[in-house]
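Problem: given the chain below (97 residues), write out its structure.
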Amino acid sequence: MRAFLASAYRGYDFARSNPEQAAEIILKMYPTLDAQVALEQIRGTNDLITDKGLADKPLGHLREDRMASSLAFVDKAFDMKGKVKLQDIFTNEFLGK
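Solution.
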């Protein structure tokens, strides 16, 4: 799991630092895509995966309070009655330091 996440986040980090080049790579794999749409999707993803409040943490690190808030929303929306606990679905332990 650690190796998979390290590889995945290296790719995300590359796309975050080099969005235009990342779009070119995607277009080589999927030449029918629109170049501008691909670039905007990468930029949008970059915004979503970057938490400026966690600059000292590795890419992919999730804040426990945000995960708890998401779980509370899903618990209420799907009437789960607290059956799912935060510790059962959330950890940052597999990320690098």
